[in-house]
Amino acid sequence: MDCTNVYRRSFLVFHRLLNTYLSGKKWMVFFFVAIVKYRPDLFAIHERPRDTTVFKSNYDFVIVGGGSAGCVLANRLSENPEWQVLLLEAGGPEPTLSEIPALATALQYTWYDWKYHPEHTGDACLAYKGERCRWPRGKGLGGSSVLNAMLYIRGNRRDYDLWAAQGNPGWSYDEVLPYFLKSEDMRIRRYKDSPFHRSGGELTIEHFRYQTPIVPDLLEAAVEMGFPIRDCNGARQTGFTKSHCTLRNGVRCSAAKAFLRPARNRPNFHVSMFSHVEKIIMEKRSEGTVARGVVFNKRGVRHTVYANKEVIISAGSINTPQILMLSGIGPRGHLHSLGIKEFNDLPGVGQNLQDHVSTGGNLFLVDNPVTFVMPRLITYKAVERFIKRNSGPLCTFAGAEVMAFIDLRKSEWAMNGTEIDDDWPNIQLLIGGFGDNVDGGTLGMRANGLSFDYYSEVYEKVLYNDAFGIHTVLLRPYSRGNITLRSADPYEHPVIQHGYFTDRRDVETLIAAARFVMKYATQTAALRRHGARYNPHVYPRCGVLGVNSDAFWECVIRHYSQTIYHPTCTAKMGPLTDPMAVVDHELRVHGVEKLRVIDASIMPNIVSGNTNAPVIMIAEKGADMIKKFWSK
């Protein structure tokens, strides 16, 4: 055995552990102090909503959940000065550090995160600690919009036309597009005059202010393969694009910043943070079941507030079904087994769970200094550039500088100048000058929950080498999961069955995506001039199957199965004729008056892209529905 290599590897292991568990905290403290001292515009304590401690007994609307949907609803409903609106959020204020794009994953698994773990299955997430996936979800004002990668993608026209065709009038693409436009503030110059965009809304859209030098070559390689560089939020989706992001002046534009801060001083609007909702108060009447109010716990004190008009649950695709079931709305047998009084038997609550699972860890080494190597770029000089000029490496999320939408149902990948007939891609690529090796585990290993064994085998020998990464994202999974209660305790996390790869077709699609990525990354002249090559240090369990074989790729897929943080569809929208539908096309819970669900859980099918923009659209449309109903 080569003692020099053993010494080098031992040193790298020690260095990475030190960097991950000690220096990371030091940097976080340094960033926070620097922002408070030199960037008061980001700290902006005077612009943030105040926490209500004295409550009215009655509000017109009680909104449960201060995530993306709840922020939009609180703004739009409180526009009417005659309506009293209360927003309840289990977490606290949005974190200041989330403003920095490069720290997008740094706040996962802190007190700003619900820290969910789906159940172990043995079929996915095998590279993770305990072979269990991590599902970060934002806990605090802004919800997951303060933890996400800031990517703004609406999905595909056909997604929404399918919703409408399933018995949901008003939800076709042409009918929802105005609600995307309503809140958009497009600042990417080339799209300002596009009919698919507008300026002046609450939610600001920009490109990252910094890009790694390899980005032009990533786009050139796409053109070389016959794909257009286009507005993937425009007339057609298939192709490559520089990422559209929820940024304002180079820093994160969360839903809380966009929608709550402008409404913070309205006298008819209260925000209560650290307020964990335990259940909705339900009442059986001769004419049916009615939602009357909400029971919540704020810092150890239980409160009850009543809703004159409606209770709106916007707690997200995990918490929303949990709250519904705790309140007696859900599958009858499951509720009875936990001793929960049933008010409405809705078998679909918690079912139909869909998520965008991806294959992570696809690492391509390059010979040139063109990527995001953390020790080289994240320096005190970089912090100075961020503080003084709002620019530099801290102003990017390098793991997704470029994205692509491709259709692997076609026999040929290259489009050769022709349009794909139906423009309904089934794979998304997240591409950027960032790989799991370039940060020594500071962000990627920690956020994803990778086991030390897996990280060491695959990345240790190429630690801090220049490399770019590509995530292959399954846009329309066939597999389904579910969410059920673990107990009747509102403080115990529910049981999450992610359902990854329960349908074989999903594995086969991701295998095809891996082969596309290999061709794109290693056979195009634009990337070959950097010496792009797949990381040879594969996980031994997969390597013995023969690198680049179908069996190898399936092994990689089942080991590095990464959520793209898009759990959806657990309280699906649909007509009464659909036995699994939970809400109608106006987002009213079937069989319950004065109760709506407005968040990602109402999607009948997951959209073909990142879900934050669609959730904001759903809330914009839902707010208009509420206004129309109560103006009669």
UniProtKB/TrEMBL annotation:
Transmembrane segments: none annotated. The keyword Flavoprotein applies. FAD binds at V277. Keywords: FAD, Flavoprotein. Its cofactor is FAD. Residues 138-161, 316-330 form the Glucose-methanol-choline oxidoreductase N-terminal domain. This is Glucose-methanol-choline oxidoreductase N-terminal domain-containing protein. It comes from Cloeon dipterum. The lineage of its organism: Eukaryota, Metazoa, Ecdysozoa, Arthropoda, Hexapoda.
